[in-house]
Amino acid sequence: MSYFIDRRLLWRLPLLTLLFAVGLAFSQAVPAQADPDREASLAVPALDADTWRQVRSGEIGPNFRDSRADSTYNLVNASGENWRQLRNRWVSPFGLIAIGGMIVVIALFYLIIGRKDLSGPRTGRKLLRWPLLVRSIHWTVATLFIVLALTGLNLLYGKFVFRPLFGDAVWGAMISASKVSHNYLGPLFGILLIVLLARVLKHNWPKKHDLEWFKKGGGMVGKAHVDAGFANGGEKAWFWLLATVGLVVVVSGFVLDFPNYGQGRDTMQWANILHAVGALGLTAVAVGHIYIGTIGSEGSLEGMTTGYVDETWAKDHHNLWYEEVKDQAVPEQELSVGRPPPDDSEEAATRS
Question: What pLDDT sits at residue 2?
Answer without folding.
Answer: 42
